[in-house]
Write a structure and sequence with these properties.
The structure holds 2 protein chains of 2 kinds. Chain A is an alpha/beta fold. Chain A is about 20% helix and about 30% strand. Chain A has 5 helices and 13 strands. In chain A, strands 2-1-3-4-13-12-11 form a 7-stranded mixed beta sheet, with helices on both faces. Chain A has a 4-stranded mixed beta sheet with strand order 6-5-7-10, with helices on one face. Chain B starts with a strand and ends with a helix. Chain B has a single domain (about 5-245), classed as Aldolase class I (TIM Barrel), CATH 3.20.20. In chain B, about 35% of the residues lie in helices and about 30% in strands. In chain B, β4, α2 (about 60-70) and β5 (about 75-80) form a beta-alpha-beta unit. The longest helix of chain B is centred in the last third of the chain and has 12 residues, at about 235-245. The chains are: A alpha/beta, B alpha/beta. The interface of A and B includes residues 23, 48 and 82 of A.
């Protein structure tokens, strides 16, 4: 059974992620203990809210350095929503902020032509180019709609790190990132019915 | 192709799902968790638990219900009714809610939504407007439709957006439970007044009502209660009708 640390650092609902992982027969633990992270098989960094506050909360618990150490040691790391955005280097949400820097690039506000922000709702995701998904959690994707709730999106510096894209009001944005053992999903797999759970399940097999 | 989120609304009182007409004359409908799982399985895009008596922390209160529901329901959950403070929001999120709907407390405290949005993010805060028609305009009500405010409902929606709400849910008290269809004009005016997503609530009696509200107001989400609870339609039928029309 995979022992998964679900980081609880004061940024929104972590209960659903915990429940989803349990449903997938993993052994999740809600934790904010930086010293214990290296003892897990994988880390899930959930979170909603503002980027600056999220990073501040991680730093206050020493989790920023611990996550980077685990990532460098090869442990599978999954960031979801804000948790994905914090994997990048910078964000422009309410001023300039520094992220964990595990994937080069930044986070910028969506720029839909006429539709509303936040982008809240269900949407399908696209493979950036054929052959991108095998060997990644997206290999389990079968075309289902997944749930998004965000106003900002990742802009990886390196196109190779874009794992999935989605379209909102005619504008394409990065819906998932992947760099070896590091994965980010802008949508909420834990809130996206059976299709979302199967993506989480595929992450657990990394 | 844009489609509205179809939101199953479960009004809760004393551990039961209840439903009345115009927020009054509440009748027991069923057991919350079983109904939540049923609507989830049928394809609901979100669930909304509205606590009719603000019993947040009580035994069998709404937070306990949410805690149970989100073990089996993997779509977003919103909790409303009785959210009065940042601590309440935190408790709701810890129980498994993704968003909270705030009405009365925002009237009492001009800073609650602002503070909460800074801390939890705007996407977490649904500004709830309960509106009753009054000669030519709509007035905002609080306390589940019992307390008039003297404030124009459309103006109130605008203020909730300015305070930092990430979306607005507007409930027509006049239409609630009547199965006469949504108050299209109210929805349209609120949607024109704000630039964040708007959810319509109150009045759905059939799939056609939901489809009509979407095509006539472009609402981002539509909440359905009575029509589902009394088997007048199903989530699947509503979606088929809207998707068929949009295709």
């Amino acid at each position: 059974m995979k022992r998964v640390a679900v980081l609880e650092y004061g940024m929104g609902n972590v209960r659903s992620m915990f429940n989803a992982l349990e449903k997938l027969a993993a052994a999740p633990t809600l934790t904010a203990d930086a010293d214990k992270l290296s003892g897990f098989d994988a880390i899930v960094l959930p979170g909603v809210g503002a980027f600056g506050q999220g990073m501040e909360n991680l730093r206050a618990r020493g989790l920023d350095a611990a996550i980077v150490d685990c990532a460098k040691a090869g442990m599978p790391i999954l960031g979801v929503c804000l948790g994905m955005q914090m994997l990048l280097e910078t964000s422009t949400e309410f001023g300039a902020h520094e992220g964990l820097g595990l994937v080069p690039g930044g986070v910028e506000k969506l720029a839909p032509a006429s539709a509303r922000l936040p982008h809240i709702g269900w949407n399908t995701v696209l493979e950036p180019h054929p052959g991108r998904w095998p060997g990644t959690p997206l290999r389990a994707y079968a075309g289902e709609e997944v749930y998004f709730i965000h106003s900002f999106a990742a802009v990886p510096a390196n196109a190779q790190h874009v794992l999935a894209e989605a379209e909102y009001d005619g504008v394409r944005f990065c819906a998932a990132i992947g760099r070896e053992n590091i994965v980010g999903m802008q949508f909420h797999p834990e809130k996206s019915r059976a299709g979302g759970l199967s993506l989480l399940g595929a992450f657990l097999e990394l | 192709m844009r489609r509205p989120r179809i939101i199953a609304r479960l009004d809760i009182k004393n551990e039961h799902v209840i439903k009345g007409i115009q927020l009054e004359g509440l009748r027991k409908i069923g057991e919350p968790n079983a109904m939540a799982v049923g609507y989830y399985s049928d394809g609901a895009d979100e669930l909304l638990f509205m606590d009719a008596v603000a019993s947040l922390y009580e035994r069998n209160g709404v937070l306990e219900i949410v805690e149970g529901a989100c073990r089996d329901v993997f779509v977003p959950i919103t909790v409303g009714g009785g959210i009065r403070s940042v601590q309440d929001i935190e408790a709701a999120l810890r129980a498994g809610a993704d968003k909270v709907a705030i009405n009365t407390a925002a009237f009492r405290s001009a800073t609650l939504i602002d503070t909460a949005a800074r801390y939890f993010g705007s996407q977490c805060i649904v500004g709830s407007v309960e509106a009753k028609k009054r000669d030519g305009h709509w007035e905002a009500f609080t306390e589940t439709g019992r307390q008039e405010t003297g404030v124009d409902a459309v103006e109130w929606a605008r203020r909730l957006e300015a305070q930092g709400a990430g979306e607005i849910m507007v409930t027509s008290i006049d239409r609630d439970g009547t199965k006469k269809g949504y108050d299209i004009e109210l929805l349209r005016q609120v949607r024109d007044a704000v630039s964040i997503p708007v959810i319509g609530s109150g009045g759905a009696g059939s799939a056609a009502h939901v489809a009509a509200a979407f095509s006539e107001t472009d609402a981002d989400g539509l909440a359905v209660a009575t029509a589902l609870h009394y088997g007048k339609t199903t989530i699947r039928d509503i979606k088929n009708l809207i998707h068929g029309a949009a295709a």
